[in-house]
Description:
By secondary structure, chain A is mainly alpha-helical.
Amino acid sequence: MTIAFLIGTLLLFLAMRMPVAVSLGLSSVLTLLLFGDQTLLSLAQRFSHAMEVYPLLAVPFFIVAATFMTNGGVARRLIVFANAVTGRVRGGLAMGSVLACMLFAAISGSSPATVVAVGSITIVGMVGAGYTREYATGVVTTAGTLGILIPPSIVMVVYGAITETSVGALFIAGVVPGVLLTIVMMTAIFVLSRRDDLPQRSAASWREILRAGRDASWGLLLIALVLGGIYGGIFTPTEAAAVSAVAAMLIAVFVYRDISPRQIPDVLVQSARVTTMLMFIVANAYLFAFVLTTEQIPQSIAAAALAMDVSPWAFLLLVNVILLIAGSLMDPTSVVLILAPIIFPLAIGLGIDPVHLGVIMVVNMEIGMVTPPIGLNLFVASGVAGLPLTAVIRASLPWLALLLAFLVLITYVPVISLFLPNLMMGR
Amino acid sequence: MLRSLDRLEELLAAALLAAMTLLTFVQVVLRYVFNSGLVWSLETTVYLFTWLVLLGISGGIRTDSHIAVELVTTRLSAPARQVVAVVAVLLALLYAALMFVGSWALIGRLRDFGSLAHDIPLPRWLLLSALPIGFALLGLRIGQAALGVWKGTRAASHDDEPGSR
């Protein structure tokens, strides 16, 4: 009864176009007032607790870093470098865009931000070189999803915080799948480049590659600083985020001079807006998770599932289907915040590794971002490329099939995700 | 007047964000380069974060940038959509009111106990007064939006802000 009321009101409020944050908060507050013995005071306390969760402090810092890098020229220089590297083969510009998405994903934690940063430059470039606008858009829309798989990743931070899983371990676990997906996409472009009749450019000389590399070196340095710092155990993810925010600001303002000091407040205002919006959802999700825990809801679902004797294999299949549906309707952070507290205890009960589950959820969220009706990357790409939404959806469809195959691989071959964290953290 | 107030709100948020970023950065530098640190740094960052988020929520209502699911309401007829929008606004108002009551009670309790923050010489009720203030502002902004919906000046549907996540 409690669970029916909680989920029912949540879905009703969402359907009424109430903000996700308020829907989560109100359904939780009402459930606790009607069925629980909690006071409003303890709920307010729970709400403020979200801002005290140390890993979540990384969220605003990564957002500041990404905003400086998107507005500044870091992204542009990384793209020039990526294109120089892949220049010599047929379909090189498309492969370069995928590589650029991977590089940008390694300094930004958001997929739509990756699509904007890379797509606003490479789509025009590819069209100018003779690619169709649809093809160029499909590639960037899909490769942009790497933003949340390759660390840093805001979705991973949120998953780690709500399930109390190590964000550092999640970040490390995202590396191999992220690089693998990059290679798979680039290979697919290369293999099909004749069939797709993709143009070929004259090869870049080693001198040109070196020059592009030198121009992009500050961006590459930032990647090394953030990832090296986390993997080397020097920084916590939160500290790495703060360092990269300050470094991104210094690079954009003083090294590349793409942003004048007078524009800094505006970049911060923009970042603050995104931060509060995300954290408002997160704080309310803590209320939601609080209801789930105090009312022992995951335990009762777990008991029912256990009685049905579900195998981990079938369970993961079910989880994927639910996540794919939810991901096509809502933004990744909301989906993870709503479903992780329910799925997590069940998965642990079945012996599934928490880090592996995190990667599975992230890959599902990647797919959700290119699945209609609500796919953030589709919306953003439509704006960036100047194509109608339906055309973007059609252009991304072949890639969607590839992503689904990748999801199956990640789900049923846990070693892809767990190899690196096990090796580095001696788990 | 109202416009400059909005701008002030935005700049305050930017200042809070800048402060917490710099504070954490300085802490990292102090720890790894100079092998020392500021004990009050983390707690201060947490409270800056709390104020940033709580003061920012109402601004999100003003700019209509909170994420919502569009799927169902866009299929309703215009009058039905209007009714749903009014009910939604009233429910959001209920949320703000309940959370305000809860946070008011929270800081009242903290005041009675006279509990101090760990590393900052300030009472906790003062630091957490961001909560009732934030929810009161949220209620005001929702009320403002409610008037808009009532008069029909505020569209019942809008596009999500792209590139924000």
